[in-house]
Amino acid sequence: MKFPVYLDNAATTPVDPRVAEKMSSCLTMDGVFGNAASKTHLYGWQAAEAVDIARNQVADLVGADSREIVFTSGATESDNLAVTGLAFRFQGGTRNVIVTSEIEHKAILDSCSFAERLGYQVVRIKPDREGRITPEMLREHLSDRVLLVTLMQANNEVGTVNDIKALAETAHEYGALFHSDCAQSAGKVSIDVREMPVDYLSFSGHKLYGPKGIGAFYIRNDAPRPEAVIHGGGHERGLRSGTLAVHQIAGMGLAYELARQSFAAENARVAALRERLRHGLCSLAGVSLNGAARDRLPGNLNLTFRGVDGEQFLLTLTKIAVSTGSACTSAAVEPSYVLRALGLSPADAHASIRFSLGRFTTEEEIDFTVDYVKTEYLKLKAKGDFWK
Description:
By secondary structure, the protein is of the alpha/beta class.
């Protein structure tokens, strides 16, 4: 095993070696290094073809038409394009309400806060204790004033999966548009836009064994186009200007293709490892699961180690790489806003650790982690450090 054992795949996944090789082939004179916007020579044509292939690969994973996929710098930009872009387009209109939840990614919550400064009212739904938003909960906040509903398919901290098909159908009953952040769920939870009446989706490259700095935005062909938030050159059908990063796009495309090919087998294997870890650690008194027991991401396990400060506990767990929550808020000393919204006390939220497994996690690593965490827990408990 390589130490520390990597169990923080929700923060980022390592690039699959096949993806790295593909990206490398798009960097040098011997490969496809050209500008995809160069229409007058072979180098540009080759680059444009690589982008087209990748666009189709991303589309195929979610059942979309390739013309509905826009490449961005990541899911954060895609989230901003959905919320801020639509807020700019419909500013001053009669639909001036945006509905979201209290446990969305900061890219959504901060974009919604910006929309408030533009004059929109933002409704933030409190989830149930498992981190779920149901259609019934959503319907309580819908009216003909709602412009957009934005609810993630799977929560990045606790892993609970929402039924975005039912949520989108509910939003459409009131004429509202529907967006979902699928950065964590793509390739791990079934997504088929031919069956889900979603209008917009956000995707990430580095959460699915692709590179950082690349993402995608799905916009249904007949959905209103958001206002662009990046201008200059009119790339990506005017929705996202900037020279296309061919190597990153090609990498993301292949990563999504590999995920599509191995979808069932890989997710079943990872889920089995997660359950092995859960049963091993939840046998300890004082350890409990956060999020849904069933409807959750295959690789996500968020546990509360009651009576211990999570950050202090992490300092003792030097042989594994885990986190206390979202990497996007790791600099904060406050307890996780997601866990607090689920009803955990500040002490219990501080005492929670997220284990996130992935493609390269092995059974040997899981067995080691169970024994190691148990040993450290009992050792510290015997010293009384957990119960200050």
